[in-house]
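Quick question: what would this complex look like in 3D?
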Amino acid sequence: MRASRYTIFMYGAIIGVPLLMMLTVVGLLENNPYAYTVLPALLGVAASVFAATGYLETFAHRRYEGSANRLEEGIASASKMAPRNTGGKIITFVLKRFNNSTKALDSATYKVRATERTTVLGALLEIKDYQDNTISVRCNCRMGVCGSCGMVVNGKPVLACETGALNAAKDEVVEISPMLGHPLLKDMVTDFDDFFERHKSVEPHLYREDTKEKYAAKKEYMQSKEELDKFLPYSYCIMCGLCLDACPVVNSNPNFIGPQALSQAYRYHADSRDQKGKKRLFDVDSMDGVWGCEFSGSCSKACPKGVDPAGAIQLLKGDLMKSLPEN
Amino acid sequence: MELLDFDVVVLGSGIAGLGAAIHASRSSKESLSVALVSKLHVMRSHSVAAEGGISGVLYPESNKDSKDLHAYDTIKGSDYLADQDAVEVLVEKAPEEIKFLDHIGVPWNRLGNGHISQRPFGGMSIPRTAFAADKTGFFMMRSLYDELLSLKNVEIFNEHFATSLIRDGNEVHGFVAFDMATRNVKAFRSKSLIIATGGASRVFSFTTNSYSNTGDGTAMAFRAGIPLKDMEFVQFHPTALIPSGILITEAARGEGGYLRNANGDRFMERYAKSKMEIAPRDIVSRSIMTEIKEGRGMRDKESGLDYVYLDLRHLDSKKIDEKLPMIKEITIKMLNIDPSKLPIPIRPAAHFTMGGIHTDIKGHVMRSSREIMNGVWAAGECACVSVHGANRLGSNSLSQCSVWGRITGMEAAQNAKRVRRTSAKFERMAEQEEMRIIELAEGKGSQSPYEIRDALYNVMDEHLYVYRNMKGMKLAQKRISSLRKRMKDVYVKDKGNVYNTNLRETFEIANLLDLAWIITEGAIRRHESRGAHVVAEYPKRDDKNWLKHTIAMKSIGGVRFEYVPVKMEGWQPEERKY
């Protein structure tokens, strides 16, 4: 905005002022005040007004920023007051935007100044807010706990909010694409309906025989630290979908229920408070359940929260083997 | 437009919203039809960012704690603006909620004897904050979501953005929303509606809150003529990370962390000698800002923000791993700071909206200062019951959300069984709202919503932060009014129908502007300093004139204010010293 106003002012000044002078001189020489003086004078005045408006707007903008920049009693206020364009490096962001009418990934390139602290999500939002409002990104907490912003950054499935832009850059370029293992909606945004159904299908909740007592809890269920440690690592799942995106089996056999759901089946199975017992194991005892896993380990590598779905699946397999009747 | 009928509709999916949906469903023995509508995926609401824990008296026999003491701490912490009958409900019901959360799978930290572990928190006289590491809110959300999936009669509507309540006379009949995936407009008609849309701290730029905390439900309620209570009280959390504002839990201080200024002094000694770093949040935030003001802070060159240090270096690194793992993860990932080796740069950030939709003690929404609006409840941060008064104590929010999530869920279900209500005007009003959505989406204008939002940030950060003064607030009033005018000429650039975040954000920014306006107007009128609201011209609490709640209501062409007395149950105001 500011640059364009400044440009208008400059053009106004460069064209308007000489035009006014030249035509006035011509008008005086020709001695025809109406044809050559009044008209150019009007033109000149119009150009000057146009220029002045541009200048005033530029000035008004500066003045507003100036007052916002005033540091009261030496306290830097908490808003973004520091000059944005100092330090850091200019990074090129290549966005693979999913176009829902053509069903293709279109490349779009943007440049953002990034410092050591700029996250990929921060850069995306800066592009969205100030360069191209039409970009869609799903995000919320920006602190790695809500699970919204899983995407593929320079080939790696990550959460954009906890990935540093400079760290991710290769030769000062960051390429971002949506998780292609999920159905796509728009730009970086994927459709989670199928993912949530997979999660729901393993009945991921603490099963208790006495549901009445469960809802009118008078006393906590006792649990030792050792019992807690058995399921705690698997309860960190934020449902970001990165493990499913990385899983080579799901990508070739969509019927395989996938690492996220299986890790959650194990999370409740391993919880000493759960009373579902072996039924939970039998529910995933199939080729599209635990036996579909080929143990590539991609899911555990992709998980941003250190959940080890591949490990959970092997533990489910082990418990299943142990639960078989001896003969 | 699609018309959807439900017995109970819950709008918002944080801890209060999920709880309300679960209890509405359960208490009707899964017989009522319940809808849960959220602008996010329901498990991703901002409650996941709650870290430190949930308050409740669990073991009075072994640690000498009592519900009376919890109530006293809460009321004193509120600077005596909390309704004391509501506080009694909170402390009475909170323990049961912690146990319910245990029963649905929250991985509480445990003591050697298998009991739930509790940690010290700001303003609480006894360690009574139950916790699951420093991801308590996250674990509660996941457990509630998973529990919800076991219920048959709840239908989940992910990523539907609500734009307006439908009110006919003294009843609210539902709301209109559009589906983010398609931009299709849907009208949700309810016998009982529960609003649980969270806080509005995104009116400030430096905030601990998620991007979603734009107070949509609160703003919609206001526009529907529902009164808002005590909106001028905004909590600033003392320790938010530079420069992003990401929350560093109060538990870091509860577990023994120090605050230090540029000289390395533990400055809290000067402000709250007995409680030190775990004094209530309003006091600690002011202390930090006083240190900075008097030149004992440091300045971050890149962001221009002044800060002090949160020092965890003296804590056992095993303790950090067991009780504060997320803090370590965040500081390392965001700033490359290992809290065992380096102090963490922090300053106060907007954190919690103490005020909100005016409700009675059961969460029933009011239509005037004293009369009830039929068919609608509010729970969680968007509601003002009020249990937090002028300053919330840390860990009381998770208990508030749990307690009133359950109460409103059950009340709404009861009501839905009883009433058979129709409104002749519903469809026509919903169609009008659909037109308004389409007009904004497809219309023309000249103003960028993001530039308006940035200007609002500047105003709020500068004039309605920890320390306020009349001159600044009046300037803010003028600027917000001109921003509201600019908003009328706003332009949505993205003309697509699929996942149009530009459109959603434009509605959100309009909500922020409305709420910023009410916050500022309320703050200008309250001529005293109480809790989180501190005005240079009126530095003292004034119980004679101001022991009362602010009620803001829409009027023709503006907002009008009324005041209602605080409900007292025997705790008399005393000087607040820690």
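Answer marked as accepted. Chain B has a mean pLDDT of 97.
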